[in-house]
Fold each of these.
Amino acid sequence: MDLLFFGIAKDIVGKSQMIMDFGEDSPNSVADLKQALKKRYPEFSKLTSLAIAVNSEYAKDDVQLKSNDEVAIIPPVSGG
Amino acid sequence: MDLLFFGIAKDIVGKSQMIMDFGEDSPNSVADLKQALKKRYPEFSKLTSLAIAVNSEYAKDDVQLKSNDEVAIIPPVSGG
Amino acid sequence: MNKIIEIVQELDTHSVYQELSHPNSGGICVFVGSVREFTNNEQVVALEFETYESMALKEMDRLADAALEKWKLNKVVIKHAVGRKEVQDAVVIVGASSAHRSESFEACRFLIDTLKRTVPIWKKEMFKNKSVWVSAHP
Amino acid sequence: MNKIIEIVQELDTHSVYQELSHPNSGGICVFVGSVREFTNNEQVVALEFETYESMALKEMDRLADAALEKWKLNKVVIKHAVGRKEVQDAVVIVGASSAHRSESFEACRFLIDTLKRTVPIWKKEMFKNKSVWVSAHP
C-alpha cells in the first residue's frame, strides 16, 4: 500500500512516502489502516488525533481503500 | 458668542463659523445654548441628536460656557 | 509608539500591515471601510467627508487608549480619510495586533463601532439629483 | 472571481485590500497571522510550515465556499505561506468583503478558526535547542 506522510507522521516513519507491506493484515478500510499503523508504530497512538485522507479528502473510518487510491496520513494540523 | 458649525449644522445656519448675538438670552450653559439654537433655528430640533463640544471635547448639558471657550455644534456623526 | 492616529486626504492601505506588525504579535486584524456603489438601491456618485479635526484626533486618540486598556494589544491604527471619495475608495482603516487572535478581532470591532458613534466626522452621500447628510435625521 | 486561494512561499500583505475591494462592499475585514518571538516564554528562532498541497487547496476552497454560503460576501481571500518563516513574517492571510461590516468580521473570524482546524498544514516551532510539531501531542 502506497502511503504519504506529513508533519510528525513523516518523522515517525522516517519518510514522506513509502510502500508499506502489511502482509496478511493488509487493511481494507480507513479504520483498519489506522489500527495497522498504530500497531507497527506505537508513536501514532500518542498523537492528539490521527486522520486519513483518501484522494486528498478527509476519509471517515468506514471508507474502503482501493489499490489506486492516494492515501495520506494526517497528524494534527497546525496551520495559521 | 463665537460658534463652529459642522455637517448639517453648517447647512442649517449657512456658515461654518459665526459670532451669534443672543441678546438678553445669552446662554450660560451647554443646555441653554442648545435651547437658544433650537429656538432660533427650528431645524435643529429635527436632528437625530445635537451635541456641543467645548474646547474640542464633548460637553455635558451642565457645563458652563466661558467667553474664550471654543464652542462647536456637533450634529449626528457619521464617520466610517 | 503603540498607536498611529491620522486624518488624511488619501488613505494608504498598503502600509497598514507593516504598521501593525510586532515581534510579540501573532494576530493582526484590520478593518477597512470603503465606498459602496448603492445605498438602499440608490446609486451613490461619491461621498464627502468633513471633520472637526482637532476634536476628531482627540477622540481617536482616546478611542485607541480605551482599546489598549481593554485588551492586551501591541499596536493600534486608526486612520480616517476626508474630502471627496468615490466608489471603492477606502474611507477608514482601523486595526490592532496582539499575541493571540481573539484580542485583535475584538479590539478591531470595538474600534470601528466606537469610531462611528463618537468621532466628529460627517458623511454626505452624493446621489445624481440630491445629497444627504447621513444619520442627521431619524 | 469571488475567491482567491493560494499557497505560496512568500505572502504579499500589500495587495490584499485591492483583492478584496468591490463596488458593493462597504466593509473589508482582514486577518494576518504572523510569527511571534516567544511561545510560553521560549524564544522562537523560526517556524517551518509544510503542507499536503493538493488537499490543502481543496480544503481552503471548500472553506471559502462555506463562508460564501453562510454570509453574503463579495470577495474571499485565503492565503497561506509554507517554508521557513522568521519573527514578524506573515504566515496566513484571510479576508472577506461585504456590504456591511458585521458579515465581513464574522466571516473573517470563521475563516481563520476553521482553517486552523481543517486545512492540512503543519507548523514546526524551531527553538534554540529543539524543534516541536505544534499540536501533535496532547
Amino acid sequence: MKDEVVEVEVGAMILSPGFKPFDPSEFDNYQYANHPNVMTAMEFERLLSASGPTEGHLVRLSDHKEPKKIAWFQCVGSRDMNKCDNKYCSSVCCMYALKEAVIAKEHAGDDLDCTIFYMDMRTHGKDFEQSLNSAVDQGVRLVRSRIHSVEPITGSDELNIRYVTEDGNVANEIFDIIVLSVGLEITPKVMELADKIGIELTDGNFADTDSFAPVETSRKGFFVCGAFQGPKDIPQSVVDSSAAAGEASALLSDARNTLTLKPEPVPEINIQGDRPRIGVFICKCGSNINGVVNVPDVSAYAASLPCVEYACDNLYTCSQDTQDSMTQIIKANNLNRIVVAACTPKTHEPLFQETLMNAGLNKYLFEMTNIRNHASWVHKDAPDLATQKAKDLVRMSVAKVALMEPLKEGTLTINPAAMVVGGGLSGMAAAKNLAEQGYQVHVVERQPRLGGQANNLYQTFKGEDIQQEVSSLAQAIEENENIQVHLNTTLENVEGFVGSFKSDLKCESKTSTIEHGVAVIATGALPLEPSEYSYGQDNRIITSLELDQKFIADDPGLKTMESAVFIQCVGSREPDRPYCSRVCCTHSIDNALELKKANPDMHIYILYRDIRTYGEREYIYQEAREKGIIFIRYSVDNKPKIRLKDDQVSVQVTDHILNRPIEIRTDLVTLATAIVPNKDERLANFFKVPLNEDGFFVERHAKLGPSEFATDGVFLCGLAHYPKPIDEAIAHGQAAASRAVTLIARKQIHTSGNVAYVNPVICSSCGVCISICPYSAPSFETEGKNQGKASINSVLCKGCGLCMASCRSGAIHLNGFDFNQLFSQITAIN
Amino acid sequence: MKNPYTPYPVKIDEIEIATEDKSLKTFKFIFLNKEDEKKFSYQAGQFAELSIPGVGEIPIGIASSPVEKGFVKFTVFKTGVVTSHLHKMKTGDIMGIRGPLGNAFPWDNLQGKNLVIIGGGFAFTTLRSSIVFMLDPANRSKFGNVDVVYGARSPGMLLYREELFDWEKRADINMNITVDSTDNPEWKYNTGFVPTIVEKKIPKADKNTCAIVCGPPIMIKFTQPALKSLGYHDDQIIMSLENRMKCGIGMCGRCNIGKELVCKDGPVFTLEELKQTPGEF
Amino acid sequence: MNMITRNIQKHAASLLKAETVDVFIGFKAGSFPMSAAPVIIKNPEQAQALIWDSNCRLNLANYLTNRTDKIGIVAKGCDSRSIVNHIIENKITRDQLHIIGVPCSGMVDKTKIASEFTDEITELREQEDSLVIKAGSETRILAKGEFLRSNCLSCTHRNPVLYDQLAADLVTEPVIENQFADVDKIESLSRDEKWLYFDDLIQNCIRCYACRNSCPLCFCPTCFVDESNPQWVGKGIDSTDVRTFHFLRAYHCAGRCTDCGACVEACPMDINVRDFTRKLNKDVLDMYGWEAGLDIKKRPPLDTFNPNDPDEYIK
Amino acid sequence: MAEKQIKIVAFLCNWCSYGAADLAGVSRMQYSTDIRVIRVPCSGRIDAKLILSAFREGADGVWVSGCHPGECHYLEGNYYARRKFILMGNLMEHMGIDKDRLHFSWISSAEATKFAKVAQEVADTIVPMGPSDRFVKRAV
Amino acid sequence: MEIIKIKKTAWPGGIDKARETYHLFGPVKDKSCHIFRPLENNIYPDMEYTSSTLSPKSVLFPQTQKILETSVDESEKNHHILTPVKQDNTPKAVIGIRPCDAKAMQLVKLNFDTKDYRDPYWCDAYESSTFIGLAANTPSIFDFSTSAGSGPFEEDGLDVLLVDCKDHYLAKVITEKGKSFLNTTGFNESTDQNKADQIIKDLKTCAEGIINSSIRTENLKEKTVLDLYNAPFWEDLAFSCISCGTCAYVCPTCWCFDIQDETRGSLVTRIRNWDTCMPPLFTQHASGHNPRGEKTQRVRQRFMHKLKYFEDKYDQGIMCIGCGRCVEKCPVNIDIRDICNLMNAYEPEKESAVSKLREK
C-alpha cells in the first residue's frame, strides 16, 4: 500500500494516542533482557492466552516446564524517580497483577505459588477491593517490599530474588517466573505531536487538563481521552472517550446531521405462508473450526436435513465476500430461513442479520449456532465427537429456524429532552453538555442549591478553588436557556420508558409532571458519619469535609496547631463496606500539605493502610513526604486508638517499621471517612435499574458501559456509580450526556422483536406475569373484549421470558424463544 | 370389510397457492396404488380425512370433481396443527387420505331441478366439485338452470379464480362473482356481500329449485332470510356442516348434532332437517 | 338437623331475601350414604336444601371461578384459604362474596370407613363426635376423629381465614407435632423405592382429570396436557405421560395448594394424589415460611423471591 | 448397536453462562463433548415444562445455568428461577428421579474456568449413570 | 340351556385349564379398586367382588390402543404409509363379568359394528371373546339395572352365566361359545336342571328385590328432542359438574374415543384413546369455535345422548344398563337416576303453564 495524504476538514479533534508499556530492558537488576523467565506483564498475558505462543499452557519459556512459583514485581517504571523518570503511579498495575495471579492459579491449579511484591496495593476501582480480597482468599501472596535484585541460579532455570522485608531484613526467595508489572508511559512521538499541536503537557508528559474540564486540552477544540490524559484503566478510558465525544459534539452541535448519508433499505420479502426453505452456512473459521470439526462433513449432513434447500461451508462466513455471496445465494435459492454455524451469536448475530436484511429477509428468520467456542475449541482432542456435536447443533438449529417467524420491531419516538436527577458536579456537567448539544434538560435537585457535595470541598489536588468553580458552573447552568433547574424538588414517580418518560416532581407541596426521553442518574453519595475514633466527642476530631469547611472559612485556628493526625480508611475497606473510597488518600494528603503551608512547623501524621494516590496524584504524596509529613501504616486488625484525657487528644498507633505502639498527642484528628452511596431503592425501582450490594448503581457493563444502564434510556454518572474525584465525576457527567445524546439524536429507535405476547384466549388472568415482571411490561386490559386478560407492552418488554416460564396457562409466548422453538431444539438432540 | 382407519397412500403431486394471503393452498394428490383411486369413488359434497403420519388427520371437503380423473384435490385453509403442517409440505411428499366420507349433496333428488349455488370465502371447495360435476357434458342436461353466487373478501381471496372467470363466460351457468370490497378499478364483477347479491340476482323459488349454501356462519345467517324472502322453503335449502371430527365414520362420538352424526349422516343436511336438531355446530 | 346446617340455611335465606347476594353456593345432601353435592341456591325457599355434615369434602371455591354475580358461599377452613387464593389470582373479587365461615371439625374418609365393613354402607348418621353406620345387617358406632381424611388430620387451619359471618363458634386449632410425617416417610425411601412408590401410586390413573377439575387452583383455560403446538404430552395412559401430568399439575399448585383434599376426594381410582402436592407444601413452608391462602395481599411464593433464598445444590 | 451417546441439554442464559461458554472456548478450555447448548435469554425463561420435555425427549441430563443471583441481566429473573429450580428439583427427587441428572449453576460471563469445570462435573456425574430411563417418553 | 355345577374347590383347576386356550381376563383387586386385568398365571379372578371400579369395556376397547403405524424415515420402504397394527386376537375369556356389563357390550356393538363401517379393533376383539358372567346375588346399592333394560341375572351378551351358590357355582350355558369354554375347563358336573333353574330363579328374584332404586324411561321415546333439549333444568343440573371424564371412563356403554399420532424417532404410531364428552376440548374446532363450549351444553349432551338420542337412533332402549358406577364415582354426585326421571317426567306445556302462572 502506498502512503497517501488525505486532507480532512474537522471542527474538533480528539486525541487518543494511548500509551506504551514501559520497557524494563534498561533495568539490569531484574534480568529482563537476559533471562527468558523474566517477562513483562503484557508478555505474561500472552502466555495465559489460548491464542498465545503456548495456547494458554502456562510454562517457563526457558524449558517449557510448568512453573511452581511466580513473582510479580509492582511499580516497574512507575513511582520511580531513580531508575527512570516516571514519578507517577500507573494506576492499573496492581489490579492487573492480581488478575494475572488469579488466572495463573486457575490455569495451573491451586498449588501454583503466586506472589506479588508491591509498595502500596492500589485497588481503588469499582469492585477491585473485593477482587483483592478474593485473590488473597485464593492464596495469592502479597509481600510489601521493593525488590533489590534478581539473580539467575546457575545450573537451573530458576531465579533468586533478593528483597528487603518491611522490618528491614534482607530475604531471598526462588521463583520460576518473574513478571514485571510495567507501567504506562507516553511515547516521544506523542510528545512531538503535542508539541506540534501546541498543547501543554504535565510533568509526566500527559496532556494537561483542568479538573473542571477533564477532557479539554490547553488548546480550544482539542480534546483528549484515554491514557494520554493520565494513566487509567478501561472504564475510565471509556468514560473519557464518551466525555470527549460529548464535548466535541457540544462544540459542533450546529453541524449535527449535515453530512450524513442514508443507505437505501432493501424491501422485505413477504414469506408468510411459504414453506421453510432453509439455508445453512457453516464456517470453517480458517482452521479454527475446520482444524477439529470436519466441516465439509457437517455441511453435507446439513444438506440432508428436512427443509434444508442449501448448505455450504465457507472459509470465513463473516468475511465481506462471503456476506455478498450469501445475499446472492439467499436470493437465487429463494431461501427464507438461515442458519449460520460458526462462532458466537453474541458478537456475530447482528452482522448476519444485516446480511439477511440485505437479501430482503426479515432479520429474525435466523438462527446461529456456535460450533467454534462450543465445539472445535473445547474438544480439540476429540475431532469425531466434536464433528458429531457440530452436526447435532446444526440439526437443532435447523429444527428451530424452521419455526422462526418474521418479527416486527416497534418504533419509539424519542422525546429530545433529558432529566438529570441530582444537581451535583456530575449532574451539572451532564446537564451542561446536553444543553450545549441543543437538548432540553431538567435538573432535579433535592437541596436548595446546585453543587451537591462539592459545596463542601475546598480545593482539588491540582490546587483549583472548588467553591469558585462550582459557583460559576452553577451559574452557567442556571443561565442556560435549555436547562430548567428544579431545586428543593424530589422525584415522586416515574412512568413510561425509553423515549417517553413521565416523571412526577414534588417541590414543597406542589407537584408537577415533566416529560423526557432519557434520564441521567447523578444522585451522588454521602460522607459517612463515623461511629468510631470518638467522633462527636471532641471538636478536635473531625472529618475531612469538616476540615475543608475550616479551610473554606479560613479558620485561624489551623495556623496555630502544633500537630495534626489524619486517619485513613475510616469506614472503607472494611467488611461492612468492602470498597475503597478512592479519593481520601489524595484528599488527606492535599489537606495535610495545606496545613503545612499554613504552618510549616506543624507535625503532621497520616495513618494509612495503603496510600492510593494513583496517577499524577502521586506527586503530592512525594511532596508530602519531602515536606516531612509522617506516614504511618496500620493494619485493619490493629486500628489506631483515640484517647481523650485531660482535655488532650492523643492517637495511639503501632508503628509498622518499629512494630511498636506510639502515641501522638495532637490538636486535630481528621477522619478520612468513607463515601457511602444513597442506596436509593425507590429511584432504582422507578427506572428498573439495579443496585449492587454496597448500594451503588450497577452500570450496563463494568468495563465497556460505565455511563449507562442496561435499561434503555437511563444513564449514570458521578458518585452514584462509585466514589470518584472531581475530574472523574465531571468526565462521567459529560460521558453520560454523550451516551444519552447517541439515543436522543436518533429521534426514533427500534425495539427488539424478541418480545413476549399474550394469547388472551388462554390467559387465566391469574396475574403472575404482572406480579413478577421486573419491567412492568404486562398489565391487565382495562377495556374491550379482552378486558381482564393480561397483555404485554412490547416496548417495555425486554424479552427475558420470565413471564412465559411463570405462566401456568401457557398463554404467554416469547418471540424467538417460544416453547415450540426450544422444544424443537430439544427433540432434535438425538 | 376394509379397515376404515387405514388411509390410502397418496403423493402430493402439486401445491398451488389458492389465495393472495397464502392462507389457502390447493393440494393435488395422486394415489400411490392405482386401484385405490377406484375405491375412492366419491360424489360432490363428500369429504375425506387428510392423514399426515405423525401429525394427525383433518376432515376436508373434496374440491375435485368425480368427473376429474387421475387425481383428487383439496383446498386447505391453514388453521390448526395438521393444516399448518400440510402447508409446510412439498410436492413428492407421501401421506394418506381416508374416505370418501359422509353423504354427498343429494344428487339423485336434484336431478331435473334448477340449482342455486351460494358460497362464501373458502367454503367453496365442494361447491366447485359440484359445479364441475354439473357442467360436465355428460351431466349438464340432467339439471335445469344453474345460478351461482360466490363471494370473498377481495378478488385475491376468491378460490379457483381462473375457473370462475371461465364459467362467467359460459352460457350454461349464471355466475355472480362478488367481493366485499376492492380498490381495483379493473374489477368487472359484483361488489357487495353475498346475501345482498343473492337477493338481487337469484331467481325466486319455485318447487323445482334447490339452493346449496356453504360459507362462513355470518354469511349463512344473513343468506337464510334472503332466500326466505325469495320464497325458498327450508327443505329447499341444502347446507353442509363442519364439526370437529376424528374418525369420520360415525364412531368416535364428537360431531353429533342430536342423534345425527355430522361425519356419517351428514355433512349435508337440509335446513328443515337441521331445524329439528339441536344446533350444536 | 345440626346447628351448623340450621345457621347456614338461615343465613342463606336471609342473604337471598335481602338480595345481598344473587346466588348462594353450599352443599346439599347427596343421593347415597356418605355423599354431599355442591348446590347453587337462587331463592330463599330453596335454602332448606342446604346441609352441613362430615361429607362436605369438596372445595366450593372451585365454583367461584370467573363468576360475575354476587355470591354467598359456605367455606370451611381450606375452602376459605382457596377463596383467598382465588382473590389473589383474580378469579373473584372480595366484594362479590359473602362468606359464611364454618369452623371445621374435619371431614370423614369414606374409603377408610368402607374398609371397616364387608357389606356396603347403607346409612351414616352423625351424633356429636360419633358416626352411626349401617352396613348390611350390622350397625356400628365409630369415633369420627379416627376416621378423618388424612389431610384433615394434618390440618392446622380448621377455622376459616376469611369470612363475613360464622355458622358456628371458632374451634381451637390443633397443634400437630409433625404435619408432614407422610412426606417424611416417602423422603426416607431410597431413590428406586420412591420411583416404584409413585409408579404404583398412579398405576390405575385413567386421566379423567377429576383431580385437576375438582381443584380450585386448576382454572387455566387450557391445561398444559391439552396444548397442541407442540403437543408435548401424549393423551393416553402411557406411564411417562401420566407421570408428566401429575408432576406438572402438582408443580403448578406449588405454594398455592391449601391441602383441601378435593383432588383425592374426586379421584375415582382412590389415588392419593396429595403425595405430589404435599412435598411442595412442605418445601414452601420449610424454605419460604409459606402456607397458602392466609393473606389476600400476599402473592404465592413462586410469584416473589427473597435475595437470600436457599439455593442448596445450585452450583 | 453402538452404545448410545450420552446427551446433556444445557440451557444457558445469553448474558452470563453462554458468555462463559464462549470465553471457555476462547481460552481453549477442554471439557466433555456430551453437552448440547440451547441458548435462552435468561434462566428465568426456564420452566418445569422445558426441563421435563428434555428428559421426556431423551436427554440423559439437563443443566441450567444463569447469572449469579443479583447479577441478572434482567434484574431479577434468576431470583425467581431459583425458587422454581429448587422446588422442581426437590419434587423430581421426591419422585425418584436421579437428581444427579439435573444440574443448576450460576456462572458469570467472566467465569470461563468455572464453566468448563462445571460442564465437566455435570458430564462426569451423568455419563457413568448411562442413558436415562426415567421420565423418558417411549413409543407406546 | 344346560346348567352345570362347578364346585369352588375345582374352580382354580378349571381356570388353569382354560388358560391353555384362552387369554383370561377377570376382576382383580388393586388397592381399594377392582379392575379387569389380564389374568397372569397364578392370578385368579376375584369372584367376591361387588362391582369393578372400571367397567370391563377395556378388555375389548383398551384405554390406549395402537391402531396404525409407519415410519417417517424416507430411507425405509413404505415410509409414511400407515398400516394397521396387528392385534392379538387369540380367544379371550372374560371371567366374572357382571351381567349388566356384558349387556353393555351389546349396546357398544351398535356403535362399532354398523352396516356402513366395521371397527375391526373392537369387533375382532369382541368376536374372539367369550363372556363368562357372574350373577350379582347382592347387587350394589348403586345398581339400578332392573329398570335400565338389564338386571343382576341378565343373560343378553353372556355366553355363560355363573351363579354363586356358596360352595359351588351353577353355570348356565347360554351360547355355543360358552359351551366350548366350559369344555376346555373340564367343568361338566351335571345337576338337576329343574332344581338348578329354580335356585337361579330364586336367587334372581332375591337379588332383584335388593335393588331399591330405579329409573323411569317409558316416556322418553315419545318426547320431542328439542323439548327436552330446551328444558329449563339443565343449567342447575350442570352447576356442580366439574367437566372431568369420570362418568364416561367408568361407564360400560361410553365408547367415545380420540385418535392421536405419536412420533418417537422415525416410528409413528396412531393411537386411539378413550375420550369423554365432558371437557370442552372434545368438540372445539381448530378455529376456536365450540358448539358445546359451555358446561351446561356438555352435561345435556351426555344425558341426552344416553337417554334420548341413542334410543331415537337405534331403537334399542337407553344407552345405560344401570350399573351405577357413574353415580358412585361422580365427584360431585350428579345422579343419572334423578336426571332420567326428570327427563321422563318433563312436560314442556305444563312447565310453561306453571311459569306463566308464576308471572301472573
